[in-house]
């Protein structure tokens, strides 16, 4: 099909008259690099103006089937000579001039300055084509080597007359099946040379076919989504989702592991088992996984200049096999984010970090921090741009996302692009503050809830009962306090007795007794209304006997203590001997201890309730 | 002033106690969560094993399509060509829980993936389960026992085995629901509050949603109610705890599609209704007893009993007749195999073939509950002093669960909480006794020396100080195992008040209970040592024994760590390199994983609802190549997946499971006979093996070209050279084998053209009659023709 079509094209080219300007190409050198899965055509054209008019545009012609797969086209001119030679890239655009044969796409290169009469100019053209190496046969077994076919013209296809031209085709190895032989063709190692050919008319075309072995990895990413998320806390997180397919000849028949393991480079020559990603230096937290979890076959090497990640898909990739995975890594912010004129800008590489992967559809998303404004993007080549919003951790309005989309991407696009935006540093604190206030209000709400009365009906029986119960509890608490204070007074009295036995100061002891009496009286006065309340309250019905008992015991204890106190004091006044006092007090003492224990028990029981 | 301070001190101590309790509970929750993260740290954040993959897939569907589509989901990716109604056959509790968790997080703009939420659901719920244990034990035997039990449950290996991060299974949520339902039941029993009774019914509903083990609840609670009635402990609280649960619980349970009318139709629920009637009769009797005089009551009783007996007998006779008319007596297979441990091995090979349905061995008790096994008896004794409604419930719980765990290894999981509660009670009681002894020994010395001065108050003060001091001493000693020891320290502090209350009641008794000081100290030390051993064992079990996700295997050798990621390699290959609608046949173990990870239609999976279908696959695997090809082709199968461990020594491969395939296949298709595959009753694959064995599909798919790896064909699992080394496949074609040969995938070759068959036929000539007859036989064997 292709052959016939091109033959038709040749006919047209002969029939159609050269109508364009009076440019001629005095020398054309072409070099077609077929060593990888992409085709790189580097041509050097020497353009001469034979007419009188000043010409500022040069047309380049490519057949449509090449233009369709054209991933990259760059025209450059060399300025200066020798060491100081620098290349200046020239703008290239698609044009549709009239009178051109069909099935051709024409690109116009604008020269830096007009070309006057008899002037000449040298152009360097680099065209990169993807999906142009056609596997033939289209299906191979595991053991076969992959053979591919490439078609082009032996003559440089141009709307201009060409004086001298030559073409060299570089193959990955010297193993080739076939190449079209026309006059002046020779093979040197893995290079096929056509030409030189002289004085060819415009649109000369002589189809050639090269059929050769190419076992280079034909890794094609059908879709790659790179998400670059900027965090002003010091990190740039990059997440790359790959859908990889082996774009070469399809595997036919089964895959035999034993053959592959025995001689992997013979019985699996057309497959590739790993890819190498060159990440920026200081990449950290690298991960490599797919939908069903981590993929353990990867190696990371790094030094100060670069980080190299070798990833192996879960299985060796044979022709037509697909896989998908995600690679993610963090980068230090300071290496990529800069400030200029009050704006920040991210400077990041556009293409994919993996070697030799052709990307059919590349989507780069730059997620800017929440609250970024005045976003603008500068990319050194045309891309599709749009913006969206992404919601991530603790976002309210969402983060602005710049989406850049480009199809047919080759490693030549690994250029840096810039995203400019404005961002207030204070916005950084918003999320921590949100958390702080969130928890603060949660605790405040808890406190309020614990202290507020939340019941709906203020007159319901259970609510009233609860209120009464609270009152009862408060009363019981007071009774307990009262009792404890009584006990404390008792302790004081006991202490005074001990002092007495030590110092023999009867007066002091009496004074203590007096104070204690006063206090106890006061306490019993305080107790009375409480007891009255408890007795009347129905809620306290089950408590009441205990409290009664407690109060009774305490009274008894108090009496006994007083008795003991007066006995001891009396004996001291009578100057009785220590032993005698002890004997007299002993009986009291036993009762006191027992009573005291009982009172303590009762107090504990009540507090339990 | 001093008195005021004293009053303030008690309230302060209370406040301090509850704050401390809160923080201990928080730490227990953190412990329960973090001890389950070993799998994430040592391996990766990934879903484990088999069933979790199905749950994960269901959750993905739920989060993607919403709840209504979920209920109506007919899954055509499994049980081809029958399909499965997922919404009606799955316990939705776990997936709904994780789904709503995911939804909540995402609505708060926390973009976690469904997988992450699923991986961490189990640890989160084990923290909840620890808290529920605290509540339950607190209802039974106070705060101290509660904290101890919660700490024990947080790291009991049996529960860890089912709830490590990534083990996204029903049990992870169900154990929490089980304990929480029991807690609410006991709480209702203690308070008699209708509020808690309603909550109890809701918790029961959640349990029904989560796990088929809910039948345990609906049988245990009636048993306890019956026990209470028989022992004369009937009260209105018991009525409130039980009656609403049965009514509301049954109504709610029948809302769950997978249960539906089973909630009233099957024998598993029968006990609850019977006890429901009994409790009403008893309530009526108590009521009548209240309004009648004793004499009248006696007359009434004789009257009612005579009539009632006749009616009851009639009803029971009808019921028995109804139940007996069904072949399984109204019980499901799984329940029957619980009541009769030999039932499954006799009648249902599918249930018997699962390793977790085997009875456990003694070491597995020690492995799964460790020292708790020794503490449980002490806990039971402690529950009898004094026996309350709540403690009798726990005793009943442990007794029944010990029985069930003895039937099935899997139900060790039900035993674990009971064992933790019992051990918590035992430990806290033991600490009580010992610390109390210490407390009463220490002040004994100053009390004797201070004779006469009547210094009791200061004495008691020193008691307290000394007690606190001794506590502090012991606690500093045991800082290493702080997590274990904290609750015990706590319980001593907390329990002091009830202890005082109990002891003071009878001073003599207290004096008798006090043990010698040295002995108490040594005993406390030994108890703490026991606890430390438990902690060490649990951490070891969590880190080493139960964390492997089983889809990634690792092995250590002299040259470092080896990772065997073959399963995912194969599933990823299937996912990316086969057609979306291709059917993959494998033994049912790998069904869930294939649908979830490879996203391909399978013939059978781990939901073993259709025995015939599984038997068909088993038959195919144990048939010769041609017959197998016909069966698979009739099922529209394109790929056959086998798991083979012979190269690397992975023991649970298909060759080792093969006898079950033969048994299950033979159970439905009698031409597959187990003895054909055995040589003198022995299962072997070496040169002594039977020719049926060496020609069956499973053998061929497993060992195809295996001999070329080492020249001899040495199988590292069976430790022998294989019997048939060189053979070719005529109807199958190897399309993929993983790196370590653990998964091998074959494709069915397309049927041959007719013309070639004709020429062969003419060549074979005389053989035609025999081939046709065998073909017919093959036809007959094939259940899909």
Automatic annotation (TrEMBL), chain A:
Q: From the record, give the transmembrane residue ranges.
A: 433-452
Coiled-coil ranges per UniProt: 578-605
Where in or outside the cell it occurs: the entry states: Endoplasmic reticulum membrane
- Kindly indicate where the leader peptide sits in this chain: 1-21
Main localization of the protein?
A: endoplasmic reticulum
Report keywords, A-Z. Coiled coil, Endoplasmic reticulum, Membrane, Signal, Transmembrane, Transmembrane helix
The answer to keyword Endoplasmic reticulum applying to this record is: yes
Please give, as recorded in its UniProt entry, the membrane topology of this protein.
Single-pass type I membrane protein
Name the Pfam families on file: Ribophorin_I
What cellular-component terms does GO give this entry?
oligosaccharyltransferase complex
Pathway(s) served: Protein modification; protein glycosylation
Q: Does the keyword Repeat apply?
A: no
The record's subunit annotation is: Component of the oligosaccharyltransferase (OST) complex.
* Similarity remark: Belongs to the OST1 family.
The entry's protein name is Dolichyl-diphosphooligosaccharide--protein glycosyltransferase subunit 1
Automatic annotation (TrEMBL), chain B:
Q: What class of enzyme is it?
A: transferase
Cellular compartments per GO CC? endoplasmic reticulum membrane
Keyword field: Endoplasmic reticulum, Glycoprotein, Glycosyltransferase, Magnesium, Manganese, Membrane, Metal-binding, Transferase, Transmembrane, Transmembrane helix
Compartment(s) where it occurs, according to its Swiss-Prot or TrEMBL record: Endoplasmic reticulum membrane
Residues annotated as transmembrane: 12-35, 85-105, 117-136, 142-160, 172-197, 203-227, 239-264, 270-288, 300-324, 365-385, 392-409, 415-434, 520-543
State the similarity comment.
Answer: Belongs to the STT3 family.
> Under which name does UniProt file this protein?
dolichyl-diphosphooligosaccharide--protein glycotransferase
* Species, as recorded: Nelumbo nucifera
């Amino acid at each position: 099909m292709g052959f016939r079509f091109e033959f038709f094209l040749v006919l047209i080219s002969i029939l159609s008259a050269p109508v364009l300007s009076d440019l001629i190409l005095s020398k054309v050198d072409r070099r077609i690099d077929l060593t990888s899965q992409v085709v790189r055509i580097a041509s050097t054209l020497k353009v001469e103006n034979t007419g009188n008019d000043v010409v500022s545009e040069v047309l380049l012609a490519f057949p449509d089937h090449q233009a369709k797969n054209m991933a990259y086209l760059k025209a450059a001119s060399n300025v200066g000579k020798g060491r100081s030679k620098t290349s200046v890239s020239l703008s290239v655009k698609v044009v549709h001039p009239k009178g051109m044969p069909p099935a051709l796409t024409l690109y116009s290169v604008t020269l830096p300055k007009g070309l006057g009469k008899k002037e000449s100019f040298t152009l360097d053209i680099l065209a990169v084509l993807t999906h142009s190496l056609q596997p033939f046969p289209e299906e191979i077994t595991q053991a076969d080597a992959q053979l591919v076919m490439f078609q082009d013209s032996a003559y440089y296809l141009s709307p201009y007359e060409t004086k001298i031209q030559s073409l060299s085709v570089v193959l990955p190895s010297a193993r080739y099946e076939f190449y079209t032989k026309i006059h002046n063709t020779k093979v040197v190692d893995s290079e096929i040379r056509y030409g030189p050919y002289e004085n060819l008319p415009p649109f000369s075309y002589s189809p050639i076919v090269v059929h050769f072995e190419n076992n280079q990895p034909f890794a094609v990413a059908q879709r790659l989504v790179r998400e670059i998320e900027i965090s002003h806390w010091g990190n740039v997180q990059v997440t790359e989702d790959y859908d990889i397919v082996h774009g070469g000849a399809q595997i036919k028949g089964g895959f035999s592991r034993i053959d592959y393991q025995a001689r992997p480079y013979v019985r699996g020559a057309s497959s590739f088992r790993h890819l190498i990603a060159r990440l920026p230096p200081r990449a950290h937290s690298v991960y490599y996984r797919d939908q069903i979890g981590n993929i353990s076959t990867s190696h990371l090497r790094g030094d100060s200049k670069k980080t190299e990640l070798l990833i192996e898909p879960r299985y060796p990739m044979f022709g037509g096999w697909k896989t998908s995975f995600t690679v993610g890594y963090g980068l230090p912010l300071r290496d990529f984010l800069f400030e200029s004129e009050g704006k920040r800008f991210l400077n990041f590489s556009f293409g994919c970090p993996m070697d030799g992967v052709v990307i059919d559809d590349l989507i780069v998303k730059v997620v800017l921090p929440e609250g970024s404004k005045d976003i603008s993007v500068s990319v050194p080549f045309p891309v599709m741009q749009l913006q969206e919003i992404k919601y991530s951790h603790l976002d309210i309005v969402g983060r602005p996302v710049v989406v850049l989309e480009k199809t047919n991407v080759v490693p030549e696009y690994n250029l840096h692009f810039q995203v400019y935006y404005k961002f207030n540093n204070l916005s950084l604190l918003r999320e921590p503050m949100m958390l702080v206030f969130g928890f603060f209000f949660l605790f405040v709400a808890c406190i309020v809830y614990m202290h507020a009365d939340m019941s709906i009906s203020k007159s319901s029986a259970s609510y009233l009962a609860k209120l009464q119960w609270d009152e009862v509890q408060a009363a019981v608490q007071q009774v307990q306090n009262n009792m404890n204070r009584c006990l404390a007074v008792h302790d004081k009295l006991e202490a005074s007795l001990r002092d007495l036995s030590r110092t023999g100061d009867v007066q002091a002891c009496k004074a203590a007794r007096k104070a204690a009496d006063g206090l106890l009286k006061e306490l019993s006065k305080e107790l009375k209304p409480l007891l009255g309340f408890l007795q009347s309250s129905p809620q306290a019905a089950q408590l009441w006997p205990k409290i009664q008992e407690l109060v009774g015991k305490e009274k008894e204890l108090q009496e006994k203590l007083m008795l003991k106190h007066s006995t001891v004091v009396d004996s001291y006044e009578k100057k009785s001997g220590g032993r005698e006092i002890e004997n007299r007090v002993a009986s009291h003492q036993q009762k006191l201890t027992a009573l005291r224990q009982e009172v303590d028990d009762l107090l504990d029981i009540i507090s339990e309730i | 002033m001093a008195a005021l301070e004293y009053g303030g001190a008690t309230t302060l101590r209370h406040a301090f106690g509850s704050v401390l309790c809160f923080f201990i509970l928080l730490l227990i929750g953190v412990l329960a969560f973090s001890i389950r993260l070993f799998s994430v740290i040592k391996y990766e954040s990934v879903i484990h094993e088999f069933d979790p993959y199905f749950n994960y897939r269901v959750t993905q569907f739920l989060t993607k399509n919403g709840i209504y589509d979920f209920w109506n989901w007919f899954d055509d990716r499994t049980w081809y060509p029958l399909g499965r109604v997922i919404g009606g056959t799955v316990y939705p509790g776990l997936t709904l829980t994780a789904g709503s968790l995911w939804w909540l997080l995402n609505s708060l703009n926390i973009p976690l993936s469904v997988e992450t939420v699923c991986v961490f659901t189990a640890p989160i719920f084990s923290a909840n389960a620890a808290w529920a244990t605290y509540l339950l034990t607190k209802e039974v035997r106070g705060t101290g026992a509660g904290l101890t039990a919660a700490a024990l449950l947080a790291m009991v290996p049996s529960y860890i085995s089912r709830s490590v991060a990534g083990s996204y299974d029903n049990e992870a949520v169900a154990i929490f629901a089980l304990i929480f339902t029991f807690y609410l039941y006991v709480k209702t029993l203690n308070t008699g509050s209708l509020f808690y009774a309603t909550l109890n019914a809701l918790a029961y509903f959640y349990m029904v949603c989560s796990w088929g083990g809910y039948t345990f609840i609906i049988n245990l609670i009636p048993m306890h109610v019956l026990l209470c009635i028989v022992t004369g402990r009937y009260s209105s609280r018991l009525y409130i705890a039980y009656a609403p649960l049965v009514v509301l619980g049954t109504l709610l349970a029948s809302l769950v599609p997978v249960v539906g009318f089973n909630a009233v139709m099957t024998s598993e629920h029968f006990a609850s209704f019977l006890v429901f009637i009994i409790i009403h009769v008893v309530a009526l009797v108590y009521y009548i007893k209240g309004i009648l005089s004793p004499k009248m009551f006696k007359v009434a009783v004789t009257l009612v009993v005579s009539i009632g007996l006749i009616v009851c007998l009639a009803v029971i006779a009808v019921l028995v007749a109804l139940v007996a008319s069904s072949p399984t007596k109204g019980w499901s297979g799984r329940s029957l195999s619980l009541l009769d441990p030999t039932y499954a091995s006799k009648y249902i090979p599918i249930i018997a073939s699962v390793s977790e349905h085997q009875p456990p061995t003694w070491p597995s008790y020690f492995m799964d509950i460790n020292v708790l096994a020794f503490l449980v008896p002490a806990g039971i004794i402690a529950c009898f002093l004094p026996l309350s409604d709540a403690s009798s419930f726990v005793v009943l719980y442990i007794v029944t669960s010990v029985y069930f765990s003895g039937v099935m290894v899997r139900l060790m999981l039900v035993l674990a909480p009971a064992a933790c509660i019992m051990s918590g009670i035992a430990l806290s009681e033991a600490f009580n006794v010992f610390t109390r002894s210490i407390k009463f020994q220490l002040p004994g010395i100053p009390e004797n020396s201070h004779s006469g001065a009547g210094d009791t108050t200061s004495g008691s003060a020193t008691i307290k100080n000394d007690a606190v001091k001794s506590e502090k001493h012991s606690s500093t000693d045991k800082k290493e195992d702080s997590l274990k020891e904290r609750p015990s320290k706590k319980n001593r502090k907390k329990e002091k008040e009830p202890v005082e209350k109990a002891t003071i009641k009878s001073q003599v008794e207290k004096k008798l209970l006090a043990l010698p000081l040295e002995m108490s100290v040594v005993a406390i030390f030994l108890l703490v040592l026991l606890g430390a051993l438990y902690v060490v064992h649990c951490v070891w079990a969590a880190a080493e024994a139960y964390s492997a996700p089983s889809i990634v295997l690792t092995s250590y050798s002299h040259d470092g760590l080896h990772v065997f990621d073959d399963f995912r390699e194969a599933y990823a290959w299937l996912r990316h390199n086969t057609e979306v609608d291709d059917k993959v046949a494998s033994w049912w173990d790998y069904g869930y994983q294939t649908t979830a990870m490879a996203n391909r239609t399978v013939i059978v999976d781990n939901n073993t609802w259709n025995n015939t279908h599984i038997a068909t696959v088993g038959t195919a695997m144990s048939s010769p190549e041609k017959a197998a090809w016909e069966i698979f082709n009739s099922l529209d199968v394109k790929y056959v997946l086998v798991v083979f461990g012979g190269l690397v020594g992975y023991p649970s491969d298909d060759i080792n499971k093969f006898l079950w395939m033969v048994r299950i296949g033979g159970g439905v298709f009698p031409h597959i006979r187990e003895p054909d595959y055995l040589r003198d009753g022995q299962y072997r694959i070496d040169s002594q093996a039977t020719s049926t064995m060496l020609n069956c599909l499973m053998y061929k798919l497993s060992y195809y070209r295996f001999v070329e790896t080492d020249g001899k064909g040495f199988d590292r699992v069976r430790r022998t050279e294989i019997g048939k080394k060189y053979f070719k496949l005529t109807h199958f074609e190897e399309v993929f084998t993983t790196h370590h040969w653990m998964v091998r995938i074959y494709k069915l070759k397309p049927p041959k053209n007719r013309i070639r068959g004709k020429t062969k036929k003419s060549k074979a000539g005389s053989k035609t009659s025999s081939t046709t007859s065998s073909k017919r036989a093959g036809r007959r064997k094939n259940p899909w023709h």
